[in-house]
Design goal:
alpha+beta, three-stranded antiparallel β-sheet, 10 strands, 43% helix
């Protein structure tokens, strides 16, 4: 216990010095105290939270969890205190503080963009006409019922075309060797389709916000806008249209309960 405390204090002393970075003190404390020193952290979290690479992790002891025949390799877990030490060794005190501050700024910027988008969505809802129909928009965190104009025929056709592309991609129009990957190797994984040439106005209409042609109510992360909806709502069909039963094989195939849409505006 005493040795552990000494390590923590050494890290704080190196990073904070004699109050050289008072504005970063809370960030550093959260970084150090976020977990118990002997708590385990997955590989993905280790790279993300401690600013490390696979090469850095290759030098550390780890505990394998899970894995096995037919389910992939085990996940590696590393000790919190080892990750702290490695990150400090690699980046130095100044480097760690700069990375923590930069990450905090990114997260704050993201929060601001989400708040601005939420305000824009509220304005859209307030301005919605009375001749509307109710749909449910499934966001990343909450479910909000909004009133939206009905789809134009063009958007209805687009939704139907996208649904047909998904069905074709998943093998809805074929029979045999569908679900049993260990024996067949032909079962579809997470499906993905791409449609080029979509305008901002068309994207907004697909996302049930046809009046937001400037996408003010959407959050852009990097080059993409990302939205998530119930599959039945997005494709404009009943749940039964998303499922197919293959009688000879006694298996059922379903597109999924939700659809994630990523949109990158054209620069042309």
């Amino acid at each position: 216990h005493n040795k552990r405390k000494a390590i923590e204090e050494k890290i704080r002393e190196k990073i904070m010095g004699d109050d050289s970075y008072p504005s970063a003190r809370d960030l550093v404390d959260d970084w150090i105290d976020g977990l118990d020193p002997y708590d385990m952290v997955s590989s993905a979290a280790a790279k993300r939270e401690y600013f490390l690479t696979a090469s850095d992790l290759a030098t550390l002891l780890y505990e394998p969890v899970g894995g096995g025949v037919g389910i992939g390799s085990a996940t590696k877990y590393y000790m919190h205190r080892h990750l702290l030490q490695t990150s400090l060794r690699k980046h130095g005190a100044d480097g760690v503080v700069k990375k923590l501050e930069a990450r905090n700024k990114r997260e704050e910027k993201k929060r601001m963009k989400e708040e601005q988008a939420e305000q824009a969505r509220k304005r859209l809802m307030a301005a919605a006409s009375t001749s509307t129909t109710e749909m449910t928009h499934i966001g990343r965190v909450t479910t909000t019922t909004i009133r939206i104009p009905r789809d134009s025929q063009e958007i209805k056709n687009l939704r139907g075309g996208l649904l047909n592309m998904v069905k074709e991609n998943m093998g809805f129009k074929t029979t045999g060797w569908i679900i049993l990957p260990y024996y067949c190797g032909r079962a579809p994984k997470n499906w993905r389709i791409e449609t080029p040439g979509i305008s901002k106005a068309t994207f907004a209409a697909l996302m049930f916000r046809p009046t937001d042609v400037d996408l003010e109510s959407f959050v852009q992360n990097g080059a993409y806008y990302t939205e998530k909806y119930r599959a039945s709502n997005f494709f404009g069909v009943d749940e039964t249209r998303l499922t197919k039963y293959f009688e000879p094989e006694y298996v059922t195939q379903k597109i999924g309960s939700s659809v994630t849409v990523r949109y990158k505006p054209s620069t042309m």
